[in-house]
Amino acid sequence: MFIRLVADSFTRRPRRKLLTTAALALGMAVATAALSVSLDVGDRLSREFRSLGANLVVTPQADSLPLEIGGVDYRPVNSGAYLPEADLGKLKTIFWRNNIVAFAPILEVRGEALPFARVDGNYQFANWITKVPLIGTWAYNAIPLPDGGEFQTGIAKTNPWWQIEGRWFSDDAKECVVGVAFAQKNHIKIGDSISLATGYVTKIPAPLEVTGILTSGGPEDRSIVVPLSRAQSLAGQRRQYRKLYVSALTKPEDDFGRRDPKTMKPDELERWSCSPYVSSIAYSIQQVLPGSDVRVIRRVAEGEGAILTKVRALLWLVTLAALLAAALAVGASSAASVIERRTEIGLMKALGASSGTVGLLLAAEQLLLAFVGGGIGYSLGIFLARVVGEKILGAAPEPSFLVLLVILCLAAGVTLLGSAIPLRRASRYEPAPILRGE
Amino acid sequence: MPAPLNNNRAMFLRILWRLLFAHRGRLFVILLALGAGASITAALLNLQVDAKRRLTTEFRALGANVIIAPHASGESTATPRFLDDSVLKKVLEGQNSGAIAGAEFLYGVVDVGKRPNLANERSAKSAKAILVGYLHSGARPEQVVPAALLDVERKLFRPTLQPCEVGQKVAAALRLQSGDGVALASGSREVSCHPFVLSPIGGQEDSQVFMELPPAQALLDQPGRISLIQLSVPGTPPEIQSYIFDLRGKFPEADVRPIRQFTEGEAKIYNRISGVLTATVLVVLVLTSLCVMAAMTNVAMERRNDVGLMKAIGGASRRVLRLFLMEAALLGLAGGLLGAAAGIGLSIWLGKAVFGLAARPRLIVYPVAVALTILVSIAGAFPLRRLVSIRPASVFRGEA
Hints:
The complex is a heterodimer of chains A (438) and B (400). With 438 residues, chain A is α+β, with helices and mostly antiparallel strands. Chain A has two domains: 2-46 and 309-436, no CATH class; 57-246, no CATH class. Helix content of chain A is 47%, strand content 21%. Chain A has helices at residues 2-12, 14-48, 155-158, 180-186, 228-235, 266-273, 278-288, 298-339, 342-350, 355-393, 401-428, 431-436; strands at 56-60, 68-69, 72-73, 83-84, 100-119, 122-125, 129-137, 141-144, 150-153, 163-166, 175-179, 193-197, 208-215, 224-227, 240-241, 243-248, 292-296. In chain A, helix 1 packs across helix 10 (355-393), helix 2 (14-48) runs parallel beside helix 10 (355-393) and helix 8 (298-339) packs parallel to helix 11. With 400 residues, chain B is of the alpha+beta class. Chain B has 13 helices and eleven strands. In chain B, the strands form two sheets. In chain B, strands 3-4-8-5-7-6 form a six-stranded mixed barrel. The longest helix of chain B has 41 residues, at 260-300. Chains A and B meet through helix 2, strand 2, strand 7, helix 8 and helix 10 of A and helix 2, strand 3, strand 4, helix 5 and helix 8 of B.
């Protein structure tokens, strides 16, 4: 009988039920879309922030003090320490290997450059240019990993704001890229060649072809960027580098993340090293690169943390406001549908139903509506979140089971709460005046 | 015939009054739904405009985004070149709001030596390092000078000796201990100073020594000269670009350029964030208004019996419809006025919670939110029109 009454209420006036379901579904779609976007956006944005470049820098521990003004190092070439290139594959073996987006080793050396242009098949030599800053690095290098496989990385990934006119050099070819200011001053074009040498020049070395002009907005604009192996042979430092930029996905640091790991208790240390704070990633890099000094580039890491925290909070508050509005509108809608049925409630009570039975009947109806409406709303909301995610972040948020659970609970709670208040008032009335229409 | 018309109007208003206030529970429920819609509309519209503007200021947490340097043309890159130290003052005077922070720097190579216990004899431990003389603007210096430097500055108790801030790597190279003094030498000039070791910064700053600009100028023998100016310019990416063009016109002797690492990244991230915000707000607004509309239709359909009754006792279809649409409009107005006010309050609170600064209420948002609510409310009542065309008897039989 109970089931028949519930079923009857749905089949007798399907249009009214449809309207309530629509209100519910739309409200829950708002909630789902807002929830999915704000759950997902943190990770996506922290990937976007990698366009600011590296947030960690590795230097040799025993290095002498760099004397760098405006990108020119005033140190003699042979002073200072170096790190072995062979260790770099180990970076992708640390606990946070998947958080390491890119890295690029740097070896700077000052040398002599002899540019020449090819005109009608003849070489036109210019004069030797002295003390040119040469930056050796990887453009796109595939490095083999200790567990097999390869990892594509290089300066084009760590410093995405470096703009190349033409193309990057290939790391194993006799090619180079010239800074825009250096190129303008010395009238170098793409396709020209440059011979590079250090120390006392006895014969002109084999030239490198200029494949691109680099605009970085920094001191690199006045230098020549060459493949790392080329810089190593010019500096006489085989398979060595001096500076390593690492770009890693991190979690914004809170007070706990800023603590010194040396002062932590073992359980705290475990929690600390299991959160991708930039400092705990730095700590694990230091452990695989012996003799290195890993530092957090505070400017990038802290700026990123501050902005991410703000944006996340903003989206959460928008989500909260959306949830609240959806709950109120849906609650009001179900309250209205109960108010309207006062006559029916009066009739049932006149026929001998107790307040409890009537309440149970209506609650069952509302719950059924909530689950149907909530389910429809969830799929609609997921679809909308997918559209928003794909259009703006380039990747759709994963549909999450947690969100479905939250939405169904919210729908059930709101409809029950919305109908509870008018139901209580109705149960207090005597059936007779209600039936008379008073 | 003025009298019946008056009568009609009085009757119209009376019925309207009864419709609105006969059932207070129902009135409350409708106002709740409409008010919730109006408040979310007002809050999101207000926040959306404000948040985007605020975000551009938040990006200044990344620090300086514009630098002014001497032109590098002509001579070899190895000789340092200088700017006049009045340039920064001129730049900062040119703006009206104090929104731009700036700092000027002078770089030079010095010999850094340790003086144990501030005694006069020079210790053997010494190294070459970069000396940075700096001077920053009063407003928001944390955007152009490393925070660690400002921490030291704040703690400074007027010492008798010239203070200098020593980067961590320099301190490690000198094996500096507390109580030690530091001597800086350049050519034949020498200055003793009281060192403060900086906490790690992660950039070149860790291997530099900092000092106020005037003594550094004296030590390096570069009076009135600086090497570099860093500015932190707030605004959207196009605004920053046009500001850079302005500066280029004003200081043709200097090379004004954006720090591409930050301007490029910032533009990309800003576009993404404001896109997410706009899209979320749009989706939420559209769905909320649809949801409120469905709720309103639900409520309006309850008037089925009233429509049937009015038609049965001779009400003209258009007048009956007008009555109910009027009711819906009044409800929309009331719900909108209350809800939008609450929403603007909400957005002020949200702004405070996120950005630490109250969002400035935009007056245009209020009428827009109210109008939208009235529109949604009338649209929600519109399905009643279908009832007007049917026969009253079928309504009473419960067939409609």
